[in-house]
Description:
The complex is a heterodimer of chains A (96) and B (369).
Chain A: H1 3-7, H2 12-27, H3 45-59, H4 70-73, H5 76-88
Chain B: H1 6-16, H2 20-26, H3 31-39, H4 58-71, H5 73-92, H6 95-105, E1 111-114, E2 130-134, E3 137-147, E4 155-162, E5 165-172, E6 178-182, E7 195-204, H7 217-253, E8 255-256, E9 259-260, H8 265-293, H9 299-325, H10 335-346, H11 353-367
Parallel strand pairs in B: 1-4
Antiparallel strand pairs in B: 2-3, 3-7, 4-5, 6-7, 8-9
Helix pairs in contact in B: 1-4, 4-5, 4-7, 5-6, 5-7, 7-8, 7-9, 7-10, 8-9, 9-10, 9-11
Amino acid sequence: xxxxxxxxxxxxxxxxxxxxxxxxxxxxxxxxxxxxxxxxxxxxxxxxxxxxxxxxxxxxxxxxxxxxxxxxxxxxxxxxxxxxxxxxxxxxxxxx
Amino acid sequence: xxxxxxxxxxxxxxxxxxxxxxxxxxxxxxxxxxxxxxxxxxxxxxxxxxxxxxxxxxxxxxxxxxxxxxxxxxxxxxxxxxxxxxxxxxxxxxxxxxxxxxxxxxxxxxxxxxxxxxxxxxxxxxxxxxxxxxxxxxxxxxxxxxxxxxxxxxxxxxxxxxxxxxxxxxxxxxxxxxxxxxxxxxxxxxxxxxxxxxxxxxxxxxxxxxxxxxxxxxxxxxxxxxxxxxxxxxxxxxxxxxxxxxxxxxxxxxxxxxxxxxxxxxxxxxxxxxxxxxxxxxxxxxxxxxxxxxxxxxxxxxxxxxxxxxxxxxxxxxxxxxxxxxxxxxxxxxxxxxxxxxxxxxxxxxxxxxxxxxxxxxxxxxxxx
Lengths: 96, 369
């Protein structure tokens, strides 16, 4: 869906924008970039996993091991930082 | 094109032979058989080759799981547990943990997994087991119910609270403070080695807690359960295939008053329904596996849909098969008698029918305006 448009030249701005759109579509709620999605009860158990798989697919990254911590997914900002870090990593944790 | 995992299928078929009925009656699987199957990577066939596994797709492992389920749901449920543990390690373990545990899980070591507690089944928020930092390592306290395969396991993967987050720990079964009480006379999957387990101040090195802990509880549960749901869904397709086979053979060959049972229209309706159940379940499992193999964000929901559909069809098909076989199948150990008891359990575990319906209803609301 969004993979083609975002794999190349993703910046913090484009990732943040895409994630806010994805969230609005999936949980039918407009969220703020700094809003805690987990403590606010917006993220169901199904959606928690959808988020991970979506980020992996859309940005061609593998999110595994210590990167799967709750803190990486709390907000749109923290997910944006996670995506940028994993895209920049020379040796992603996922292909060990 | 050769059938994927064809050699593995033949190997497993030979290991099981015609002994599943006897294992059901005895309530125990031969441990050496589990070690042999484990050492060939059959119990968690989706582990990537780079970690020593067979690297099967969800689709190929699914067909393999259905084959196991058609022969013996106790052994298939051991596969489900081992696969959940391997997948959880693969996702949440750090580099060293993935390498260490996945090598063990594909070379004969066995693992069970614990979700439910006395006061917390599907309601995650009431989970009480804790995995908390303690010096250089962690300490585990709590209780889990109905761990499949605990009787045979070398490790138990336990999910628990970790501060305001969650963690998953690989607990060696010889850890001081671990008590394993076998469930007496389980109604189904009788040889799967279910047990209730208690943890009292179990000390673990930091290397036993996947990724160092601090995960989201829903994310951890859903990831682990999703693999389990896929495995159960395919295993149920296998149960239905065994029922269809037994019913077809019996009604063609059994005559009453000189007429084969299969000549009766009411019997034929049952046969049609068995075929419909088998095809419906297989196709929905294939769909969920495609979602899984393509990394679709809907994979977790599709796993619930497949598990719920297949388990319901398996329970119905097993009842139909017992009905058609009559006294020929109404004896414990018989393939349809096992199916009848085993399939009912599949409507309870890894999300009961009702929990699956709640998840699917939530999904229905999320995709409608």
